[in-house]
Amino acid sequence: MEQASQKRIVPVNRLVLGITGGIAAYKAAELLRLLIKQGMEVQVVMTEAACHFITPATMQGLSGKPVFTDQWDASMPNSMAHINLSRAADAIVIAPATADFIARLANGLANDLLSTLCLARNCPLLIAPAMNREMWLNAATQRNVAQLLADGVQVLGPDNGVQACGEEGMGRMLEAGQLAQDIAAFFQPKQLSGKKILITAGPTYEAIDAVRGITNRSSGKMGYAIAQAALELGAEVTLVSGPTALAKPHGAQCVDVQSAAQMFDAVKQHVDSCDIFIAVAAVADYRVAQPDAQKIKKSANNLTLELVPNPDILAYVANLSHPPFCVGFAAESENLAEYAEQKRRAKKLPLLVGNLAQHAIGSDDNELVLFDDSGSHMLPRAGKFTLARQLLQYIAQRYEGAGK
Fold first, then answer.
1. Could you tell me the pTM of the whole model?
2. 24 with 52: CB under 8 angstroms?
3. Rounded CA gap, 118 and 269, in Å?
4. b/e per residue, 272-283, with b = 16+ CB within 10 A?
5. Torsion, CA 274, CA 218, CA 345, CA 356, rounded to 10
6. For every residue of 234-262, which 3-state class applies, written as one string?
7. Is 338 exposed, middle or buried (0-12, 13-18, 19+ CB in 10 A)?
8. Residue 279 needs a FRET pair 20 to 30 A away by CA distance; which of 213, 271, 369, 372 works?
9. The dihedral of CA 246, 249, 250, 254: what is its sign?
10. Residues facing 239 on adjacent strands
């Protein structure tokens, strides 16, 4: 099997992480760790106020680089830290961005190192607002944010929830994991911009009675990773998900279902408007013919259940008069190449993704084999999100080649 050809993902190698004086500054430490884990080179710049909430020593220990706080830092030979730091960056991220700092950015003020290098930058600027709900909703803050958006600044968040002051509402900074994803997504090539992608994910649950059911061991991790990767590439994503314990992908339209019949109904509702359909869900092949509305009481006798076939969702979509570009998944326990190619040809799919179930279900990594008219292509073992990115890039190439 050959390795799939794919466009190389170019990481953001150099990032300035600016930290301003808010209680959410503690989240910046975890954000820094995650950005470095993604392969980014991060230079931290802090305001004087930020140093009251988290120390430069902490950020230096995590980044492995000296932290800059002073506009007149003598370690810069030309005393131009604001120029040197901004020119060496592929992007600047301010997290947290306080109401005061947002106001200064919106009005072009430059009275410390961080605000000065933002004004002098020649690279993208992203901010993660963090403040009390009343500060966020204040007309002045909203005007300032609107001005920054008009100026091309990317605003990440804020979120709704309990705040440090004890109040609840909009203004919380996004969690570090979400911010790290959003920052990575910002720099992904938008190969699927304007395209609508419908994805199924997770298991289905087929009721036996009021408390029991038939399901499978699918975690939904691969489907959710694919949804997030599609969002990164600029797609509009609808995710139809069976029961999972996973957080919803930020930015996707999510439809929660239980049974295969409910998943089928949801797919039929959304499929007409989609360009690409990716059937990742582990849909139960059978359901109980007549589930009991009450709990079946245990007895010494054997219990016989009549099972009837569930609808084949992927086959239905692939056989529409004007089908979207269809991608199927096949989880096999043996003879992967044989069974997967048989499934692809039987359902007339342009692309089918195969894996061995015993190596994939519930795990955080996997290896995939892509089957299409040109043969089979291996995506070597990696984390599921890495594989999802590679797969979506391959799908984008095939979709474009199919003239869709």
1. 0.73
2. no
3. 46
4. eebbbbbbbbbb
5. 140
6. CCEEEEEECCCCCCCCCCCEEEECCCHHH
7. exposed
8. 213
9. negative
10. 199, 254
Of the residues 51, 118, 123, 165, which is catalytic?
A: 165
pLDDT on residue 1: 44
C-alpha–C-alpha distance, residues 254 and 265, integer Å: 14
Burial letters for 74-105: b for 16+ Cβ neighbours within 10 Å, e otherwise? Answer: eebeeebbbbbbbeebbbbbbbbbbbbbbbbb
Give, for 383, the enclosing helix (H) or strand (E).
strand 375-383
DSSP, collapsed to helix, strand or coil, labels residue 182 as: helix
* Alpha helix segments (H runs only) across 38-106: 56-63, 81-87, 99-106
CB-based contacts of 335, cutoff 8 Å, min separation 6:
none
- Tell me phi and psi for residue 179, to 5 degrees: -60, -45
Name the E strands within 104-235.
125-129, 154-155, 159-162, 168-172, 196-201, 206-207, 213-214
Nearest to 28 by CA among 65, 5, 62: 62
- Label the pairing between strands 159-162 and 168-172: antiparallel
Is 165 part of the annotated catalytic residue set? Answer: yes
User: Domains plus CATH for the chain?
Assistant: 2-186 (3.40.50.1950), 196-401 (3.40.50.10300)
Within 8 A by CB and 6+ apart from 117, the residues are 16, 18, 45, 81, 82, 83, 85, 86, 92
Distance CA 31, CA 324 (A): 38
Going 201 to 373 to 344 to 275, the CA torsion angle's sign is positive
Q: How far apart are CA 171 and CA 348, in angstroms?
A: 49
CB proximity list for 218: less than 8 A, separation 6 or greater: 202, 203, 242, 281, 282, 361
How far is residue 92 CA from its own chain's centroid?
Answer: 21
What pLDDT sits at residue 8? 40
* Residues near 197 by beta carbon (within 8 Å), at least 6 away in sequence: 230, 235, 236, 237, 238, 274, 275, 276, 277, 278
Convert the pLDDT of each residue in 123-157 to its tens digit: 999 999 999 999 999 999 999 999 999 999 999 98
Amino acid at position 217, single letter: R
φ, ψ of residue 86 in degrees (nearest 5): -70, -35
β-strand pairing of 325-332 with 276-279? parallel
